[in-house]
Design goal:
heterodimer, A: about 325 residues, mainly alpha, two-stranded antiparallel sheet, two-stranded antiparallel ribbon, about 5% strand, globular, B: about 250 residues, alpha/beta, Rossmann fold, four-stranded antiparallel sheet
Chain lengths: ~325, ~250
Amino acid sequence: MNRDLIKFLAFAALILTMPLALHGGYLMNVLVFVGIHTMLAIGLNLLLGYAGQISLGHAGFFGLGAYLSGILTATYGWNPWLAMPLAAAVVGGLAFLIGFPILKLKGHYLAMATLGMGIIMYITFNETIGLTGGPSGLSGIPAIAIGTLTFDSDQKNFYLIWTFTLGMILLTLNLANSRIGRALRAVHDSEVAAQVLGINARLLKVQIFALSAVISSIAGSLYAHTMTFISPASFGFNFSVELLTMVVIGGLGSIYGSFLGAALLTLLPEFLRAAQDYDIIIYGALLMVMVKYLPGGLVRGVPGLFRKLMKKRGARHA
Amino acid sequence: MLEVSGITQIFGGVTALEDVSFAIRKGDITGIIGPNGAGKTTLFNIISGIYTQTSGRVMLNSRDVTGLPPEKLAMLGMVRTFQNIELFGGMSVMENVMVGLHTRSSSGLMACSLRLPWSRKEEHRIRADARQWLEFTGISELADVTAGNLSFGKGRMLEIARALAVEPGIILMDEPAAGLNSQETLELARLIRRIRDLGITVVLVEHDMELVMDICDRIVVLNLGFKLAEGTPGEIQENHDVIAAYLGDDD
């Protein structure tokens, strides 16, 4: 067994034993969100951290996955296990088609194009009232079931979501350490050099955009089935920015970093409730401080800060 | 091996190259020289598919490759290096060379995500091949160093190692000696000869006359976008047009 696998198994064991320490309750529900957000952050990180391409519209893919799953199951009575892969395939195909023209753009222009894409999807969720229920949302989405086991409690949902999240972490870790992961980072560092070595940068970017959308769609389907109610407000521009923040705060180009970013940004507002009206100010200030002092993200910054502190203490003792 | 004919490149009314034609023989080391602004780098960018020329044709192994993108040319066995070395700065030296083996491997998204047995086997082979190229270029002790931290000279070696990993039939080097000290230039000359000994055709744009005269079998001279002369180093040194272009015309 290699070191990466041992690290992953330790991480998985840590996550899966958490419910034992928490004895159920509200925090379990928050951890379900941490799992969903981790998937989304990983999906976006593949695009932003590895391939170096920004997207300000990923909440749209998340929403599209959620609505496709929701509509197929709640309105048309499909089995969630069928609706989820179909939604993922449709979203992936759509992203592939959108990706070809827009990934020709770079930097700010790509940000604008993906922003537009996200807004169009958000408007669609709001306006196609016959399908989505519009601003008042879509309810009655069935929970996922395996045989007679229905995932209808926070505890059960925790295991459902984290099985998917851990699986996705393992797959994306593998991908990141493969020839594809290297090609993505190569395109990020020098597109022209990657091309002269035979990498079809354009196709690769579109493929990873589509993969990232598929991951968002799966997270969306799982979100719909665990919440059983969805509304457009969850899939707006704000959420796209929040996802981007998770990826950057956690650490660009690090899968575990995406988990850290997702966990922090999901848990922080819960803990800041104690500060009442000031919570949003503290939240914003914390983000600014982190970006300033941990520019490599939590995953690189925290060990670095720790080393620095130890060094300082060592110097003082000497 | 490589044949360019009638290459003309016009940038917004300025003619950078006009009707340039020459052929490069398999197994030769060919130098393309000329004073600043002669159009050497433009010509390289056209041959390697980075620019599309206004007119003219490029043939690789008697196949018309005019207008093909760089990644297609790489698959057909043509690679290049850059004057201001283009490394993947955030990756290790080893990983840089492993990227060079991209076209020599084929595992797709699925196989890589699932770490299927054949993709794992392929990964082992990629690593072993990359190590060989690091040894060939003499930088294997730097395998784990982040490429962005390399000295310019070592970076140049890495860029060449990475290009060789593609296992090309022809390699284009844009001013490989630029920024190197005299010791490094000597090493470069030896390396270029060893690359030719592998059966790889070498074409270089170069300012370092000593290097060019020393290692090249044939030389093409460009001046102001025209081909001024073509021949062996001996012939070029005696050519009056070339001397005039470099030293200025006395008449």
